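Late entry, written up from scratch paper. The run itself happened at the end of the previous shift, but nothing got recorded in the book at the time, so transcribing now.
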Amino acid sequence: MTAISDRPQMLPEEFEEFARHLTQTALGIRLEFINGKLGIKPVPDGDHSMIIEWLTRICIQARPELWLYNHGLKIQTYRGGRAHPDGTLAPSGTVAGQGEWASTNGVLMVVEVTSYDSDTERRDRVEKPRAYAETGIPVYLLIDRDSAEVTVYSEPDGVRYETVQILPFGKTVRLPEPVGISLDTEPLKNWVR
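Output as recorded:
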């Protein structure tokens, strides 16, 4: 017997239609659908945007054949999830022709930058690592402004990431293959409260 909490709130197609209508009328939020549950993600603040700009510059300089997209992804085979990572590193042209919710084929890394809201713990530190690992995304980079740390998740096994590395802002972190980029995280100290 299936518990009520195990049932999705809606089908992925219903979520897409709902999100399309709400996005046209509501400012300041982005919708996600993870593990069968509807979630609301706040629109980034200025410091959040600076972190993404910083990371985009590094990625393009190190790997000019890649692009750091801000695009919705179809995640999880179970319950057909939809997520809006803050960044999706993939070969240039990967999202062409895919609409609002792109496949994860070709995605090398997803990036989340924590927001100062009550859902960060559940969303960015619990649900998303699991969802991205289940989807097989090779690297998940969490830039955690609350703890002033960078967490690199890698080696997904279909359930979880087998390797997790946590470093404080200011250290150099090597993003594992297939990304293969080093990040000097000292500038991140400028964009935290």
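The chain has one domain: 44-191.
(Scratch paper discarded after transcription.)
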